[in-house]
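Hey team,

Filing this mostly as a record. A colleague (T.K.) asked me to run one chain through the structure pipeline before their review meeting, and I want the input and output archived in the tracker in case anyone asks later how it was produced. No errors, nothing strange. Just documentation.

Input sequence:
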Amino acid sequence: MPEEIENVGEVSQSRYEQIVAELRDVVEQQTRGQFTIGDRALEIEPMRDQGGQGPADPEWSVAASLTRLAEDIGLKVGTVKSARWVASRWPAARRQKDVSHTVHRILAHIENEQERFEAILVLPEGKSRWTADDAKRRVGNRVETPVTPEEKVTAIHSLAQDDRVAAAVTSDFLKRPEVTAKVTQVDKARVVEEFTRDEQVATTAATSLLRRPEVAFKAMSDDTARFQVNHAQNERSRQAREHFETTSPVAPAVRKIERTVEFLDLVTACHSFVAAAGRAVPGLRGRTLSEDESAIVRQNVAKCRATLDWIENAVDTGKVDMDDALAALLRGQ
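Output structure:
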């Protein structure tokens, strides 16, 4: 049974190879034609050194000459200028017969002349002929058909230069779990920070995240985060209180009640202290405390005595600020 021959498009493999051979001849003819155009343009207007002086009469300047040539042969002046420049980069002896003019033009961007002439002689790895993309890879340009991940990323960046396109692409990518799973934690954190620069967005995101117990627990393990949350709560309470006191018609009555509540809290604290001491002290009967235990008790008695003095001073004068010594004592310093 004869081996089945795979088609290429609508033609057989053998016919495809005939077409390739035919078109290679055409490309070779086109390459010769492009170099001929460039050589003749160079003959009319040789390349000048950077900053070189041209003729004073603009009619015979380089631009005018090349424009006239382009019009006389029916080509765009840009085509003629490009052919002239490529021909100047590739002397006849350095041109390769089986390499297209397009590849010559791309490799012409290699500045060093010796490097340029050697580069075209070294075929890309695994290839039998130069392609335009291979030439672009050699000079570091963006390829038409990206193959490697780096080339694909470059292509995406190029297509997404418009902010609206970039936003749409980013939104689509972030909806793919397999994509987000490959993003590092550091990059994910950076993305979240960028997306939450807007305070309203940040507030919504933070509120949603802190509703997750495991996230809230880990977040509150950070001293700075915990301090900021506590500070925010205190600040919110302060602002709410100020707003109430300045806007509510019942604020004066509430202030009287608060003073009564503060009085009751203070009396209750004293009563609780006396009651607790009354229960604890009798338990020391017949027991001798160690030196460490006695020292700890004396330290706490000193704190209690200083606190009682502070209470008396607040009641007598209305001043509730504590001095540095008292503050240090209560902190255990």
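Quick notes for T.K.: The chain has 16 helices and no strands. Residues 173 and 220 are 31 Å apart (CA to CA).
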